[in-house]
Design brief:
Aspartate Aminotransferase, domain 2; binds pyridoxal-5'-phosphate; aminotransferase; seven-stranded mixed beta sheet
Length: 375
């Protein structure tokens, strides 16, 4: 293929959206595992292994465990945030983007007592303000945080906030859906009580399985908290998976088989290795776009290593840019509602330097087309 052909050399669609991602061929192959019944010992063994590996990838040990859910990341988020706060508790939601708002929407829809601290999109979370809020309000029992706020691409200060929450003796619930696997996160060191992850972002699996990882003791304590939902009752899933060694409802076994492959690859590469790989790709994207005069949404030090938010170049709309790139085999992603005219280039998944170079070349061709139109 010549350098000017309209599809990437690999012939595949290069996904520069923040998940689902391009997966390794071994992960895709695992989807085609043999037909099986979910109430047989081999399915139970698969679930046990995936639970154990999901725990390890979150920095947990034998005192922690994971509960698997069938569904996208939001299923595990809703299972966690609807299940962990007792009737006489209250959760403080830290919100600085679309996904912080989602945490608030979940607790709100379940009528869970809460306080929402809104910092505004693109604003860092004020750790001192969180400290003060917890000092002033002993009624707050839990704190909810999004680690990587995927809407803006901002990495929130997990360790600092975890230390503050622990200092006040509250429980810390973290949406680590777009950070787990590529950003430093450790259940113990970050004082995380509830950690929510999913298959199809930085763990590089396929969509359909998500999970909640927690100290066993925390999960046991849920016995006293009445369920607010039937399908996403975290304690019910925990008891079934852990004590009965069986799924509560039909699990997504094929996706889970692929997830086991993906986590094996994550554990082999290591979070540091993956962070280094993602950082190099992000640098290539950021350097390349900076050379092209594109403006960035966030200062460099606030950015996670897997998402870059940039303004659409002058003279064209997001849809024109997206469609032009898609025709060349590259998928970029719009930024959610509050940030019109900004788009995202993610570098999660099985991508390499050639993919990014190809994207930048395609970007030039699409932008040139609209520059020509403008005169
Ligand atoms: C992707 C994502 C989710 C979950 O989205 P789903 O569409 O349910 O997979 C939740 N939180 C964050 C921070 C995310 O990036």
């Amino acid at each position: 293929m010549s350098a000017t052909t309209a599809t990437p050399a690999t012939g595949r669609l290069v996904l520069l959206n923040p998940g689902p991602v391009n997966v390794h061929e071994d992960v895709r192959a695992a989807m085609a595992s043999p037909d099986q019944c979910h109430r047989e010992p081999e399915a139970a063994a698969l679930m046990t292994r995936v639970r154990e590996k999901a725990t390890r990838v979150s920095g947990g040990d034998d005192t922690d465990t994971s509960v698997l859910l069938a569904g996208s990341g939001t299923a595990a988020l809703e299972a966690a945030f609807s299940s962990i706060v007792p009737a006489d508790g209250r959760i403080l939601i830290l919100d600085n983007g679309n996904y912080g708002e989602r945490l608030w929407r979940i607790v709100d829809v379940h009528g869970i007592p809460h306080r929402r601290m809104e910092f505004g999109w693109c604003n860092p979370i004020d750790v001192d303000a969180v400290d003060r809020a917890l000092s002033e309000d002993p009624g707050i029992t839990h704190v909810g945080l999004v680690h990587h706020e995927t809407s803006t691409g901002m990495l929130n200060p997990l360790r600092e906030i975890g230390a503050v929450v622990a200092k006040h003796g509250r429980q810390f619930a973290v949406d680590a859906i777009s950070s787990l696997g590529s950003e430093r996160l450790d259940l113990r060191a970050d004082h995380i009580d509830w950690c929510v992850g999913t298959a199809n972002k930085c763990l590089e699996g396929l969509p359909g399985v998500s999970f909640v990882t927690a100290p066993r003791q925390r999960l046991e304590e849920l016995e006293d908290v009445p369920a607010r939902t039937f399908y996403l009752d975290l304690y019910g899933h925990f008891i079934s998976q852990d004590r009965k060694n069986a799924p509560l409802f039909t699990p997504a076994l094929q996706v889970m088989t692929a997830l086991e492959q993906a986590i094996d690859r994550s554990l082999a590469e290591g979070v540091e290795g993956r962070a280094a790989r993602y950082t190099a790709l992000a640098e290539q994207i950021r350097t390349g776009l900076a050379e092209r005069g594109v403006r960035f949404l966030l200062p460099a030090e606030q950015r996670a290593n897997s998402v870059t938010n940039v303004y659409v170049p002058e003279g064209m709309t997001y849809d024109e840019l997206h469609d032009g790139l898609k025709a060349e085999g590259y998928v970029v992603y719009s930024t959610q509602e509050q940030l019109e005219g900004v788009f995202r280039v993610a570098n999660m998944g099985q991508l390499d330097g050639d993919d990014i170079a190809g994207f930048l070349a395609a970007f030039d061709r699409v932008v040139a087309k609209y520059a020509d139109r403008g005169v």
